[in-house]
Amino acid sequence: MNKIKSVYVRPLDIKHGRVDMSHGSGGRASAQLTEVVFAAAFDNEYLQQGNDGAVLPLPPANSRLVMSTDAHVVSPLFFPGGDIGSLSVHGTVNDLAMMGAHPLWLSASFILEEGFALYDLQRIVSSMAQVAKAAGVAIVTGDTKVVERGKGDGVYISTTGVGYVQGSISPSGDRARAGDAILLSGTIGDHGMAIMSQREGLQFESAIESDSAALHELVAVMLATGADIHVLRDPTRGGLATTLNEIARQSGVGMVLNENNIPVHRQVVAACEFLGLDPLYVANEGKLIAICADADAAKLLDAMRTHPLALSAAVIGTVIADDACFVQMKTKLGGRRMVDWLNGDQLPRIC
Amino acid sequence: MCLAIPACIVELLPDDMARIELDGVRKEISLSLIQGARVGDYVIVHVGYALQLLDPEEAAQTLALFAELASQT
Amino acid sequence: MKYVDEFRDGALAQNLTDSIALQAQQSRTYRLMEFCGGHTHALSRYGLLGILPANVQMIHGPGCPVCVLPIGRVDLAIRLAMEKDVILCSYGDCLRVPASDQMSLLKAKTRGGDVRMVYSALDALKIAMNNPARQVVFFAIGFETTTPPTASIIRQARANGLTNFSVLCNHVLTLPAMEAILTQPGGVPLQGLVGPAHVSTVIGSQPYQYIAKRFNKPIVISGFEPLDLLQGILMLLRQVNENRAEVENEFTRAVTLAGNRKAQALVDEVFEVRDSFEWRGLGSLPFSGLKIRVAFAEFDAELRYPDLIYTNVPDHKACECSAILRGEKRPQDCKIFGTICTPDNPIGSCMVSSEGACAAHYTYGRFSEVKWAL
C-alpha cells in the first residue's frame, strides 16, 4: 500500500506575509489564499462547493431579478467608519435597494497589488464578511488577480449583486412628477469628508465618520408603508446635488429645495469651510433620496424616522414642472441659488 | 479672494504652531505670521496660517450694526 | 461656527436687504465692483444677487489670482514638472487652469509629471524635507493674503538649510490692479468698490485711501460672510448718495488701519516688487508683482532653472477673459460661454476658478433669467 505523503504547504503568514504574483496565478498559492482568506471569511454553502460559479434559485412568482455592479478604488483603504471592503458590500447592496430589491447574493473580485500586506487583506475581508452577514447577504463567488507592484493601489474590489424585487415595485429615475415631495434620509457629506480627513496634506482631526451603511432594510420599511414612491437613489459620488440633477434630467422636471431643511453635521460644515468645499457635492454612502407623491410624504417621513439610519430624515424640497430641469434652492439666508451639476472635480481651494 | 475662516486656538504647540478648532474639527496651523496669540483667541486661518487675531468687541459691534432698523437708514 | 454663523443670520439679512432697498434711489443705477473673487463667490453662493434691488449692479473685479495668472506662467510650472523632473506643488485652484498645447497641471500629472496638490505652503516645505533626493518647486500664487505664508516657508527653508527647495513666485499686489481698473481709458463706470476682506487683514485699510482720493470713489472693505457683504454694499450706497469718496471698514473685527505689520515685514524681508508683471486681462502692470530678493536667491525657481524663460501666450481667440476681468464685458457676452467653454472644459481661467466671473455666472448667474419658482 502506498501512502502518498501529502505535500507540505507552508501555512500562510497573515501577520507578516505579502501578496506575490503566485497568488494570482491559479496554482497552489492562489488556492491557499482563496481558502484561507476568502472562503474562510465568507463561508457559505456556495463557496463550500468550490466551483467556478454559484447556482442560484430563480425568484419566486411575482418577483423579478435585479442585478447591479460597483467597483471600489477608494484611497485610503481604511478610514473612520469603514474600509474599502465594507464600502464594496454596502455599495452594491444599496444599488439593489434603490431598485426596491431585497439583496441576496454578491460576487467579489479582487485585484491585488504585489506586495500588499496580507494582514490588511485579512482586515478588509473580515470587514466584508461582517458587513455582509449583518446585511443578510452572502458572497457566493469571486475571483482574485494580482498585478505587479506599482500597477495597483493596494487593492481594488469589484462587487456585483443580485436580488429580487416584488410585484410591481419599480422606483425609477424617470418617474419624478411635478408636485412630488423630495425626502432625504439624513445628514450629507459625512463619507466624503471622512475620506478627506485622511488625505495627506489635508489632515484634520474630527469625529467625522463615513456613513457607509446598508440601506435595504430602511427601504423595506419605506415600501411597507404603501406610499407611492416614484424614485429611490443614493447620492454617492458627486453628492446630493449631482444625484438630484440626474433625476431632474431623467424625469424632465425641475426641483425646488430648502437649504434650511437639508441636515448637515456641524463638523462636516466646518471641515467643508476649511477646504472650500460645498457639502451638496460631497459623497455619501449611507443615505438615500426618495421622491414620492406629495400626499404620502408625511407618512413616509414618519416611517423613515423610526429607522436608526434615518432618524434625521427630512422633506427637503418639491418637484416642479420645468423644461430646463433646473434644481433651485432657497438659501438659509433667504436668497436663492441654482444647484448645478458638479463642474469638474471638487478640489480644495485657497480662494 | 482668499478662503479664510475664523477658528479658536485650543492649544499652543512648539515651533510657532497651534491647534485650532472650528465646531469640533481640529487642525494644526502656523502662528508664525502673528504675535501674542493665546489659547482661547480666535484667529483668521488661511492656507494653514493664522493671518490675524479676531477682535471680539468689534465683532459684537458689527453684529449690532446689522440689527439697526431699516427705518433708521 | 462662532463668528461665522452669526454673520449668516437670515433675519438680519432681511433687515439689511430692506435697508439697501430704502437706500437705493429709484432714479439711479449703482454700479459697484466687488474686487475680490471670494466676494464674487459669496454673492453667488448665498443667493445675494437675487435679493439686491435691480438698480444695484455688481461688477466682478480681477481679484482672483487664478484668473489673472497668465498662461505663460502656468506653462513654466508644467515644464518644470514634465522636463525637470521636479515635484511640483500647487494649490488646488491652479490645477485645472488651461495652459498652452491644451495642457494643464492636472493633465501634466496624468502624463507622468509629479504634480502634487497642497492645502498649505507648509505642506510643500514638508514634501521637500521628506524627499531630499528630489527637487521640489512650490508654484506660489495669490494676492497679499497668500504671500506671507510663502515668505514664511522660504525663511524656514533657509533655517533648515534645504538645498532641494525653490519657489516659482507669481504673487501679485491688489492696489496696482485696482488702479489699472480705474484708470483704463473708456473704462467701466463704477460708483464704488467693495474692498477685499483678507487681503486687508494683512495690508490694513490705510493703503486704499490713496485710491479713494485719486479716483474719487468710495471703498468699503467688507468681510466675507453674506451679512458683511450686504452691510458693505449698504455703506457704499450711502456714500454714493451722499457724494462721499472715503475708505470705510466694515470688517473691523479683523482689519485695522495698519494691518498685520509682522506679516508685512516678513514679506518685505523675502520679496521685492518687480518692475513689471503681466496680468491676464490687464496687460503688463508696473510694480504690481513680487519676486524673491537676491538674499534668498537660492530659493528662486526662476534662477535655479534659468532656461525656463517666460513667454507671453495670448488667450484663445474667442476667449473674452481679458475684457471680463476688466469688467468691460460680462460672461454672457462671450461667444463661447457655456457652449465650448464650461467648467468641465474651460478655455480661459475665468471659468476654472470657482470665483472667476465666468465660473460663478455659469454655476449661479446664468439662471438669473430663469423664471424662479421661489
Commentary on this structure:
- The complex is a heterotrimer of chains A (351), B (73) and C (374).
- Chain A has 351 residues and is an alpha+beta fold.
- Chain A folds into 2 domains: 146 residues, 60s Ribosomal Protein L30, Chain: A; 158 residues, Phosphoribosyl-aminoimidazole Synthetase, Chain A, domain 2 (Alpha-Beta Complex).
- Chain A is built from 9 helices and 13 strands.
- In chain A, the strands form 3 sheets. Chain A has a 7-stranded mixed beta sheet with strand order 8-10-7-11-9-12-13, sandwiched between helices. Chain A has a 4-stranded mixed beta sheet with strand order 1-6-4-5. A two-stranded antiparallel ribbon of chain A has the order 2-3.
- In chain A, strand 2 and strand 3 form a beta hairpin.
- Chain A is globular, with a radius of gyration of 22 Å.
- The termini of chain A are far apart.
- Chain B is α+β, with helices and mostly antiparallel strands.
- Chain B has one domain: SH3 type barrels, CATH 2.30.30.140.
- In chain B, strand 1 and strand 2 form a beta hairpin.
- Chain B is elongated and about 50 Å long.
- With 374 residues, chain C is an alpha/beta fold.
- Chain C contains 14 helices and 13 strands.
- Chain C has a 5-stranded parallel beta sheet with strand order 2-1-7-8-9. Chain C has a 4-stranded parallel beta sheet with strand order 4-3-5-6, sandwiched between helices.
- In chain C, strand 11 and strand 12 form a beta hairpin.
- In chain C, helix 2 runs parallel beside helix 14.
- Chain C starts with 9 loop residues before the first helix and ends in an 11-residue tail after the last helix.
- Classes of the chains: A alpha+beta (351), B alpha+beta (73), C alpha/beta (374).
- Chains in contact: A-B, A-C, B-C.
Query: Strand sequence of the main sheet of chain B, in spatial order?
Result: 3-2-1-4-5
Tell me the number of strands of chain B.
5
State the helix count of chain B. 1
Query: What is Rg of chain B?
Result: 15 Å
**Which sequence of SSEs, written as H and E, runs from N to C of chain B?**
EEEEEH
Q: Tell me the count of domains of chain B.
A: 1
Characterize the main sheet of chain A. 7 strands, mixed
Query: Helical region count of chain A?
Result: 9
